[in-house]
Amino acid sequence: MTKSHWAIFTDNNSLKGDFIHSLQKGANNDLKELKDLNGALFSKKVLERFIDEEDRHDTKVINVGKNQSVKSMSSGEQKKALLNYLLSLNPDFLILDNPFDNLDVESQADLKVRLNQVRMDVIIVQLISRKEDVLPFTDRFAKLTGKELYFYDNSEQLTPIELPKSFDKSIPEPPFHYDYDKDILIELKGVSVKYLDKAILQNIHWSIKKGEFWELRGRNGSGKTTILSMITGENPKGYGQELYIFDNKKGSGESVWEIKKRIGYFTPSITDKFTGYHSVEHMIISGLTDSIGLYTKPSEIQKRLAKQWLQLIDMWSIKDHLFHDLTMGQRRLIMCARAMVKHPPLLILDEPTAGLDDQSAALFAALVNKFAKASNTTTIFVSHRKEPGLNPDLIYQLEVDDQGSKGYVIKN
Ligand SMILES: Nc1ncnc2c1ncn2[C@@H]1O[C@H](COP(=O)(O)OP(=O)(O)OP(=O)(O)O)[C@@H](O)[C@H]1O
Q1: What is the pTM of this model?
Q2: What sequence ranges are listed for the domain ABC transporter (predicted)?
Q3: Distance between CA 332 and CA 271 in Å, rounded?
Q4: Residues forming a β-bridge with 7
Q5: Per residue in 328-354, pLDDT tens?
Q6: How far is 331 from 363, CA to CA, in rounded Å?
Q7: Is residue 385 scored above 70 in pLDDT?
Q8: FRET label pair with 311: which of 40, 85, 155, 353, CA 20 to 30 Å apart?
């Protein structure tokens, strides 16, 4: 019998966790046909749980028979491994929570082919925040608002995206001056990286200058994280190579702490570190002190700066709200402003829009455009999607081949 497949749209206001939980428990009254069936969940959180188990107990579950740890796989490789494992459990339905996030175009296509192959055997319930992610064979549509499910005949009936007004206030001034005045911040001259016998990067030349706005693009596994982690000092592969970070050759006794001081870094998982009760205002101020939370009374200058940033992102009226009570889109904007507040010489935004709905992603891109143009900070935005509205000056494109990825500079 042909099965029906669902696309359930979610946005910042959807109580997605509760919905997933009720589906898995067979307690959801809206999708009655799934009630007595056996469901499996494909989500980022499930993947993280397997990675954590592997880290702590050395248990292999989704990568049985493979030499590589799940953590070191690219996003495409991780998702493939998770899907194969879940399908081996023979579920009646599969809940896919934003399955295409973090995947490049080719890996998205691979995943779509695989899902198309299994759609006769398993009901697919897709929870998605981007319209372009709807699987072509989907025939049932709904939107989750709060905990209510509203049904539609097709995805076109859902509300169109309203593009945000661009931020009309100016970017607040830098709070202090960094003692780095050279034009080139980062330089890779013929850098190559191998893991075991596998070539990952091949003869990479990339010169990153003051004030530039870059997008780093490349398919899953092309080596984007490898390059970024060599820059931030977390990956030793750069030692002994012609890699210059703030004018210091890698491995020449440079201080990792000095490097980190000059880099603002944001990736969505950083948000998870802030588990305590922090107000919105304190979150911004903690960007000036590099701390998780605030342990001393903020100065008037710090408070004034936080006010300017919150006015810019239109959140001054909620300055006393608790960060963890906000929607995901609001939290991301705050975290982004938090990374910008010091005007670091280099700002790295690693897949910052993953999991956001169209509207929140557009707002986020507008903030990044504004900051990148109006500040002296060099910005590197890493994303798999061509982010609508993002307007970088330059693109560093990694192209994979058998000898590892090569890099090309494209002027936008
Ligand atoms: N410690 C490691 N050991 C073995 N292989 C590794 C290790 N770290 C990364 N790799 C491999 O290097 C390649 C590049 O990985 P990297 O994470 O840099 O890619 P990426 O472009 O950031 O991918 P994604 O977009 O999926 O995050 C992948 O094939 C990955 O499996």
Answers
A1: 0.81
A2: 186-412
A3: 8
A4: 126, 141
A5: 778 888 999 999 999 999 999 998 888
A6: 12
A7: no
A8: 353
Q: Is 405 close to ligand 1, i.e. is its CB under 6 Å away?
A: no
User: Is 75 near ligand 1, meaning CB less than 6 Å away?
Assistant: yes
Cβ of 243 below 6 Å from ligand 1: no
Sort strands 93-97 and 198-209 into parallel, antiparallel or unpaired: unpaired
Residue linked to tokens 């013929």: 190
Strand order in the sheet with 213-218: 263-266, 346-350, 378-382, 213-218, 394-399, 406-411
74 CA to middle of ligand 1, Å?
Answer: 5
For a ligand 1 pocket test, name from 68, 72, 105, 348 the mutation site with the most ligand atoms within 8 angstroms of its C-beta.
72
Q: What is the predicted pLDDT for the residue at 139?
A: 93
Q: What percent of the chain has a predicted confidence (pLDDT) above 70? A: 95
Identify the residue with better confidence: 135 or 61.
Answer: 135
pLDDT at 165: 58
Token couple for 174: 């830098």
> Which has the closest alpha carbon to 395: 372, 412, 407?
412
Most confident of 77-91, 147-161, 293-307: 77-91
Q: Residue 181: how many CB atoms within 10 A of its CB? A: 8
Q: At what angle do helices 105-118 and 75-88 cross, to 10 degrees?
A: 10
**Å from CA of 75 to ligand 1 middle:** 8
CB 350 within 8 A of CB 228: yes
State if residue 221 touches ligand 1 by the CB under 6 angstroms criterion: yes
Q: What's the first-to-final CA gap in the chain, in angstroms?
A: 50
Confidence grade of residue 220 (pLDDT, cut at 50, 70, 90): confident
Range in 171-175, 181-185, 276-280 with the lowest mean pLDDT: 276-280
> For ligand 1, atom 28, which residue shows the shortest CA distance?
221
* Residues in CB range of 49: below 8 A, 6 or more apart: none
Distance from the CA of 385 to the center of ligand 1, in angstroms? 18
User: Which of the two residues, 311 and 160, has the higher pLDDT score?
Assistant: 311
- Ligand 1, atom 8, lies closest to the CA of 72
Q: What are phi and psi of 402, to 5 degrees?
A: -60, -30
Residue nearest ligand 1's atom 5 by CA: 195
